[in-house]
Amino acid sequence: MGGDSRYLGLAYVAPYIAGLLIFTAIPFIASFYLSFTDYDLLSKPRWSGLDNYTELFTRDRTFRKSLRVTLLYVLLTVPLKLVFALFIAYILNYRLKFINFFRTAYYVPSILGGSIAVAVLWRYIFADSGLVNMVITALGGEPVNWFGDPDNALFTITLLRLWQFGSAMVIFLAALQSIDKTLYEAAAIDGAGKWHTFVYITLPLITPVIFFNLIMQMVQAFQEFNGPYVITQGGPLKSTYLLPLYIYEEAFKKFDMGYASAIAWVLFAIIMVLTLIAFWSSRHWVYYAGDKRS
Amino acid sequence: MKKTATALATILLLGAGAAQAADLRMSWWGGDSRHIATQEALKACGEKHGHTIQPEFTGWTGHQEKVTTQLAGGTEADIMQINWPWLPLLSLDGSGFADLREYSDTIDLGQWPEEQLESGTMNGKLNGLPISTTGRVFFFNKASFEKAGVPLPATWDDLISAASVFKEKLGEDYFPFDATGQNGLTAVLVVSLATTQMTGKDLIDPATNTVAWSAEELQKGIEFHQSLVDQGVIRSWKTVAGGGNVELFELPAWSDGRIAGSYEWDSTYSKFNDPLEEGQELVPVKLLTIHDAVTEGVYRKPSMVFSISKNSKNPEAAAQIVNCLLNEPEGIQALGDSRGIPASRIASETLADSGAINPQLLEANRIVMEAKGPTVSPFNEHPEVREIFQDTLEAHAYGQISAADASVEIIEGVNGVLEKF
B245 CB near a chain A CB, below 8 Å? Predict the structure, then answer.
């Protein structure tokens, strides 16, 4: 009987395991192998040793530029998105009228946000004669070249990602609602104001969720593709040429899958190292229930 | 007994017919008019030959990546519209697609002159049937020029002097021409045109497979393009980028005539003419030339080919459909001039006889076919060559490097790519 239920459990998870193997694990291992080859997609891969990595780190100026842009994008997007999501979650945590409607409304962009359609919409909103410039001009300002100016283009793409704060917000909201109300009552009795309550009670108690959102948003930001692909194609002057876009173009435009795999593995290594650093640093700022420090 | 035998025979015949009917897929890129025409043609040819054909169509952007991925995974459509310069990339040894000569009983190859079939042949295998021959041509919005009271330009000088009249009479946001294009492709081709007109040479010397232009020659071409921006003839690179990744013909400024001209493939006439507002029409003019041009410098090439997948389960059925699209009345009439003037003799004659070809497209194609210029190397459109050219021109347009440095960078970069072949 025990054996039967074990097999039944395996049968239930089999589709997931099969999917994981076929669509994640095998391509993952294959791309590692391919990163040491010269592979043009249409003929057999040829072993080239460390050539791809040597080229990447010693001669490839586009890689350096793309890496710089990607790091800047992550550095801009992740903190802004976390702060914004927490801010909205904090407001939506109040017992306002129609609160459920607002919670849903603020979550909607997250469902739509990753889609091509919204990226296209973004392109029209921020185009030189788009909605944003129309508003700026109506208010007496000078129109801004959002996509054509290399200093603005990355920021405009960042805004698209920022707009999709819903999933982080929902997680923050759940964390805020799980905080024991008696703590706030005790603080109020002691005369603590809103700001002090937020900094000394709310923030420490939701640090595990901040940490979780930080990791998730960072990994997502490193993989951003749709926005720059649809809106700017990486331009102008490669100012929005994020690494996933570079990987895509090397693989499918220039037929250099081996080199693209090498870039993908460097990107993976960067994400891995930053995640490990985040985990290491979490010992100093993340507090869990039952933790002796709390 | 007789009735039973007849019924049996009927069932057998029906069964045999069903076995021949194939489910095929066909992929292509293009604009709306091509999408509609092709779907109608597939319906007509499918009904005629008893096959069903699933259409898979996209715009130009991303289509090459899609086809490459499908070819790598063996999931490509049975029939594919392939850009001619992709042939050496996708099938250098001829094994990337089916050899269409093997289906010469089904496809009437006699409708193409041998040299055209040669252009679709890789390593002795006929990988693609030329659909049309195309070239870049100047299109101008007649209504905008009439509104400004300026005749359509016959030379670059005419065009340059039209710019100031446009601005004076119609407004600062009016431009008689556009020469940047999505990701700067048109900029590359205008610089190439000017340099070819100056030198009489294509970018690539076929004898040595290296860049044929000197740095000084290319520098003049780049400076010529920049002078068009400086004199208000075309929008700056930065302004074009400000609109986001949008094709010229999708812009309101194009459809209402504020941008009144471009340098485009003749076969894309409908794509650029269709969005124009009522009362406006795009007309082709003879290639504009610079002072002391040694050639018109036409950029002419086989535009695209139809290929059949080497993995197709029904290559014979696919060949029937290809032949129908290119050589049979149902396909010819439905496709019309949606891919330019057909290369197939019977198709071009049929369309010309029935008056089905847009006269402006016919004129555009005549200009391209009659113009003089050196043979264009397919390496002009190698993705890495294009990228180097486009990126460097962009850096120059944004003031990051001088025209002299840009020309050296382009020549060195392109030669670096060509070394691999």
Answer: yes
User: Would you state the structure tokens that stand for residue B235, as one six-digit string?
Assistant: 């929008």
Are residue B61 and residue B110 in the same domain, yes or no? yes
Residues 6+ apart with CB under 8 A from B4: none
In a domain, B10, yes or no: no
Q: Indicate the residue of B71, B183, B245 with minimum beta-carbon distance to A231.
A: B245
Domains of chain A, earliest start first = 50-119+161-285 (1.10.3720.10)
Domain that holds residue B262: 135-300+369-418
User: What long-range pairs does B14-18 form, CB within 8 A, spacing at least 24?
Assistant: B17/B50
- Which one has a higher pLDDT value, B420 or B220? B220
One domain for residues B259 and B164? yes
pLDDT in tens, B131-167: 988 899 999 999 999 999 999 999 999 999 999 999 9
Whether A232 sits inside 8 A of B241 (CB atoms) is: yes
**Residues of chain A contacting B, Cβ within 8 Å:** 41-42, 123-124, 126-129, 145-150, 153, 230-233, 235-238, 248, 252-255
Predicted-complex ipTM score: 0.81
CATH code: domain of residue B57: 3.40.190.10
- Rounded to whole angstroms, the Cα distance separating A56 from A67 reads 11
B263 close to B190: Cβ distance less than 8 angstroms: yes
| B214 in a structural domain | yes
The per-residue pLDDT for range B332-376, each reduced to its tens digit, is 999 998 898 899 999 989 998 888 888 898 899 999 989 999 988
Q: Do A254 and B69 touch (CB under 8 A)?
A: no
Q: What is the pLDDT of residue B267?
A: 84
Tell me the C-alpha distance between B280 and B301, whole Å: 29
Cβ atoms of B175 and B168 within 8 Å: the answer is no
Q: Are residues B266 and B409 in the same domain?
A: yes
